Amino acid sequence: MAQTTKIREGEIWAVGGGKGGTGKTFITSCVGTYLAKKGKNVVLVDMDIGGANLHSFFGISRPQKSLTSFFEKGASLSDLVVKTDLDNIALITGDIHSIASDKITFSQKLKLFRQIMKLNAQNVVIDLSAGSHNNTLDTFLIADRMIVVLVPEVIAIENVYHFIKNSLFRKVKKTLKEYGFKEIAQHIWDRRQNYGINNLKELIDYLKDSFSYIGTILDHELASFKIHLVLNMVRNNNDILLGASIKSVMMKYLGVPIQYSGFIEYNDAVWKSVREGRPFMLNYLATGCAKQIEIFVENMIKGKDVSLPVGF
Amino acid sequence: MVKDELKKYFEMLELPPDASLRDIHNSYLRLKKLYAGDSIVLAPLGEEFPKKKRKKVLDEIEEAYLKLLAAKKDEPSRTAFLFEDALSPEKAVDLPTTGPSLRKIREKAGVDLSEISKEFKVRIELLKSLEEERFEALPEAIYLKVHLKNYAVFLGLNPAKVIDEYLQRYQVWKEKK
Question: Does A185 reside within a domain?
């Protein structure tokens, strides 16, 4: 949307994925810490409304300021930035009070996005809520890098498909609305049986084929729609290969480009670290997990996929 | 073959355009297994991604594999001779997979056992036993499988075929024992 045009140098990364408990917040904290260690000036934003706990990963038990002030008192986002013990990394802690996601008004949302873009940071990393609520999807879509976290379980895979499909559909609808084609995508989708359309890819193909102008718009606007996949809590090579399978299926079935940027092995050190309230990437630097987070971030920056284990 | 056309086939196998023969083999087997089987990755899509479409994907994978093998045939590769008179994947992988024949292929390719040993961190003695089919000196099937896979992949052979056929003989020996 026009109101959220980027006006600064920094990059916004968003971490989503549908299912709860897959490690989105853990990964946000680690990615942020690693970027800060690389010398970037980082602000993490906890958008997990109702379930905010990013601050706990930095040993902050009761944050003095939170997004509550933004929503209830109209405070400016830049005034809500909380320092951490680490250089280069600050937080905007989540709403730990009453606000429910669907209470957020449209204008509040736009204001929030504008202010996120104006934050004084080289890297903003946003931790999203579980689920595929429109507010969550919209936040996901403002990011320069869209990161999806999942674990090797059927339900998580299902939720990730749902999340990616909904994000893409939302993106298509918003894009067409901006160009004055309000509701056309939804209209056809609601009558998809009449059009012989079975899935989102077929809808997009239909729109492109039927209206060449729309085709040009979508080709242009969807070119940047790329998902970075990270598989958390893997236990063996078969788990690692699941990421490649999901990438394949999403590309062949949905036509969405996916980069399988990383996997992180299951490690008890993670929950220990959460208990200790110290950033994982500092206390457990020698673990495979920490190394894999580094590889994951570097892969994202370089546009590389993980190297797969040979054979199966 | 036109470069753009090749690029399309690499994309079908989800590979970069500079992928090696080994990568092509691996990707082909991985994708074939995914779309021919009932992976938990496909289950959630159900009828949105019906069998008919999966079949189409499988056909595309097969075609891409064939075309890439043919294209790779002209590239200098140590195991290129495997494809000299075999253009179809069926023929290309239809080689005897006994220990001695594996050794012949390896020697013809000019690959030294020490290279495989170094790549996969496995003792040369074990690889020798594998080529000589000295089953008593080999580990249990579950571990043997890994060594066979590595060996096959290193030479650009079809690992599934090598494992299957080799283990059949291994099992026969084991039952007799």
Answer: no
In a domain, A210, yes or no: no
Which among A307, A179, A162, A305 is positioned nearest to A247, based on CA atoms?
A: A305
At residue B29's C-alpha, the angle toward residues B87 and B83, to 5°, is: 20
ipTM comes to 0.80
| CB spacing of A161 vs B44 below 8 angstroms | yes
Asked if residue A311 is part of any domain, the answer here is no
Instruction: For B157, list phi and psi in degrees, rounded to 5.
Output: -95, 165
What percentage of chain A carries pLDDT values higher than 90? 65
Out of A187-201, B5-19, B67-81, B85-99, which region has the weakest mean confidence (pLDDT)?
B85-99
Q: What are phi and psi of B106, to 5 degrees?
A: -60, -45
Single out the residue of B137, B96, B98, B129 nearest to residue B113, CA to CA.
B129
Going from N- to C-terminal start, the domains of chain B cover 3-91, 95-176
Convert the pLDDT of each residue in B88-110 to its tens digit.
444 444 567 899 989 988 888 78
Tell me, letter by letter, the H, E, C secondary structure of B14-27.
CCCCCCCHHHHHHH
Q: Identify the CA nearest to A35 among candidates A196, A147, A178.
A: A147
Does domain B3-91 correspond to CATH entry 1.10.3470?
no
Paired strand residues for A150 = A231
| B148 pLDDT more than 90 | yes
One of 3.30.70.20, 3.20.20.100, 1.10.3860.10, 1.10.260.40 is the CATH number of B95-176, namely 1.10.260.40
| Cβ distance of B26 and A310 shorter than 8 Å | yes
How many domains does the structure of chain A reveal? 1
Phi, psi of A23 (to 5 degrees): 105, 25
- In a 3-state reduction of DSSP, which class is residue A149? strand
Dihedrals φ, ψ of A31, to 5°? -60, -45
Nearest-by-CA chain B residue for A201: B48
CATH number of the domain that A66 lies in?
3.40.50.300
| Å between A252 CA and nearest CA of chain B | 8
How far B26 CA lies from chain A's nearest CA (Å)?
Answer: 6
Helices B21-36 and A237-249, axial angle in degrees (round to 10): 80
CA distance B112 to B123: 13
Q: What distance in Å separates the CA atoms of residue A222 and residue A224, rounded to the nearest whole number? A: 5
Residue A58 lies in a domain: yes
Between chains, do A248 and B26 touch, taking CB under 8 Å as contact? no
Contact: B41, A157; criterion CB under 8 Å: yes
Are B13 and B28 in contact by the 8 Å Cβ rule? The answer is: yes
Domain with A247 in it = 8-152+226-302
